[in-house]
Amino acid sequence: SVAKRAVAEAAQHDKVPRPVGFVPPPPPCPGKIRHFDI
Amino acid sequence: VPAAPPAPLGCDDPESVAAAEAAVNYINANSHHGFKFTINRIGDIRVVPQGPNNDIIFLELDLLETKCPILSPTPLANCTVRSFAEHAVEGDCDVKLQKVNGTLSVLASKCNSHADSGEDIRKLCPDCPLLAKLNNTEVLETVAAALNAYNSKTTDSYLRLLEIGRAKIQYHPAHTVVAEFAVGATNCSAEEAKANAGACQLLPEDQSNFGFCTAVMVKRPSQDLQVDCQLYGHQVPAPHVPLPSQDTS
Fold first, then answer.
1. Do A30 and B88 touch (CB under 8 A)?
2. Which of A38, B110, B211, B232 measures 20 to 30 Å from B205, CA to CA?
3. Residue A15 binned pLDDT confidence (cut-offs 50, 70, 90)
4. What would the pLDDT profile of B3-18 be if each residue is shown by its tens digit?
5. B60: nearest CA in chain A?
């Protein structure tokens, strides 16, 4: 029988340990400002 | 297992930049007033696949006004962006493009432009002059006086006013009006115009010769008027490739 593990518990176990200094990628949009922000 | 959908395009990805440049070139080519705009930021991009090598692209663009008049032949890459302290003007555009086999074409665009708020400028630069309304009496007087002065001195064609593009009025330390306006050559020489300027018409499109003038009128402490006009010479209009069902507002 397949026991459905609680999501939190599963998430806890499945959480991939992030390397030290991990920097999430910048959001895809909006893009960079080329001149100045009004 | 179906292939994972492609990751959404980022706003600074090369494909997004190429689409934004096609959009801003279209906007400038189809505008007939004011100044050229350039990309300040790609606000958002959304791609809706229509089939193999066929995408509809929705772009949100933040643009900034440059110092190049819209009729100037200067390439956009050489146009200086008006700085914040010079009272920048920004444009917000929504553009719909189609990309078929790698070729981009604009299907529709909708833009709004507005000058930055005077308060923001004043916070940063208390003495910077702000943009004046184009129908301001002092601005209209300055443009009329400047064009008369130029036409009375030139040995070339008599110039007519096309539109006032921008104006500023400063009250300290001197009372100064600066006006920038577009002009067109007419079928009269300046000498002929002295007899009957009303008969002088702008040259037909196949001979058109547009230009741009900047006038500086100092009213106090002493009166002085400087005017500088630059004519572009006859520009062969770019072949206008009509696009299917394009709508621009």
1. no
2. B110
3. low
4. 777 778 999 999 999 9
5. A30
pLDDT in tens, B212-249: 999 999 998 889 999 999 999 886 665 554 443 344 44
C-alpha distance from B23 to closest chain A C-alpha (Å): 16
In one-letter notation, the amino acid at residue B130 is L
Q: How close is the nearest chain A Cα to the Cα of B116, in Å?
A: 7
**Neighbour count for residue B131 (Cβ, 10 Å):** 18
DSSP 8-state code for residue A23: -
Give me the amino acid identity at B81: V
Write down the ipTM of this complex: 0.82
Q: Which residues contact A11 (CB under 8 A, 6 or more apart)?
A: none
CA B200 – CA B186 distance, rounded (Å) = 6
Give the number of residues written for chain A: 38
Chain B residues closer than 8 Å to A24 by CB:
none
Res. A14 pLDDT band, cuts 50 70 90: low
